[in-house]
Amino acid sequence: MKQRLFAVWLLAATLTPALASANPEPTAYDSRSIAMGLTGTSYLERPAALVLNPANLEGIDKLGFTFNFTALLVKQWAPVQGPNTRIDSGLGFGPLPAVFIAGRIAPRVVFGAGIYIETGYGSSFDDVICVDGDEVEETPPGSGNFIPDTNPTTCTNGNAPPNGIGEGPQDLNVTFFVGEFSAGTSIRVTDEFWLGVALRLPFSKQVADLWQNVGAVFGQTAYGRVKNDLGGVGFPSPRFGITWKPHRKVTVGAMYRMYSKIRLTGTTDTSTIPNITFNASADWFIPHAIQAGLAYQVNERLLLVFEARAQFHAADKSGNKNQTVTASDPNGPLEITIVVPFGWVTAWSVKVGAEYRFPIDLLAIRGGVNFARSATSGEWAQYFTPPPGLSGFFSAGLGFYWDDASGEQKDKYMLDVTGAFSVSAGSIGDEYIGNQGTIPGTSDQVTLCSFQQAVRTGCPGDLGVFTYWATVGFTVQY
Fold it and tell me: CATH number for the domain including 284?
């Protein structure tokens, strides 16, 4: 029983990286939107408006269909081997498909539905020589003076052999996605004022295969292989949109998304307790979000767009300050609930996009930039989370338009191709190492970047994420 109690505690403590692995919500729903800096709230009158601003579904005359596919190639670097070290991940692949359909059901009403990936991510650190290394030494003992080891080649923890139990190089892998099914409608109140509402049903899958200090819960150093496989469906929640056209050249759009909670259940295995698969569960929050912007049609060829977005990850009851995790022994009544720290803050972004339609009408060229603040805080930054601070997104794309065979239906077929890259990079200094941190949302304290943490946070070193985007979208609209 003591062995099982120990196992349940350390399994619950090691669920964190699988649940905190994603850069929240790249909003890759429509290739035209991506090419223009991830905008669209103010101008996108296609079926994908269901997600960006459901009021804009009103721009569809009769019927529209969109298929969009985005491939993300993600590369990370982080001080996995110990403070002030750096190791680069492999190139992770994150596919983000999306399908939308919308049609007019009344003279002033359009109904739409879609299924899409809200966030997709995959990354790995292969052949890691050591995890955490000899990262914190108190010199002399009891002095409170914590000194990082800047030479991780020995990969020792005091008198412990490499990786805590001498297992040699290890692979760390995380895969994560959150998707949604949505259905909604738009209403044309007047020719200048449109309203929209959509109902969303979120779902998620999260898998991690990691090498961690699973003994941290009991103040011990005991590294082992931990595998988590979780998934679930959340409760439905609404999205609201407003579109206002005060002038023939100006459109103002705004969207509000209510939070959703996904209940994740699955299994966890660890090499420290072989032949036992434990039940695990946790909650994942998609926070409240707002996005608003203005589109200015300079002339019949040139469109300029300015938008901003905020996601409230720091909200007390609907954000990602922390996470309640439960692990249980399937062969007994034992169940343990703990709180793991996220410490995420409100994320925001500002976006600028432009589109120029060539006189031949077949071709449009697009571009955009997007600057954002990460949801990650320095104190609680982990290996698989983006670094704290600012990130940049830069995009460009082409749009191809064809009329129907008779020439009566203008822009019936639309093919969009987009390429983009985003970068988020920064450094964490020595300001957190060895400090006492209060776990967000609780009064409990833990020593940062220490053996008290199964997943180290606040460790000094360089962190970064570089993502390549390749997107293609096809739309048919009558």
Answer: 2.40.160.60
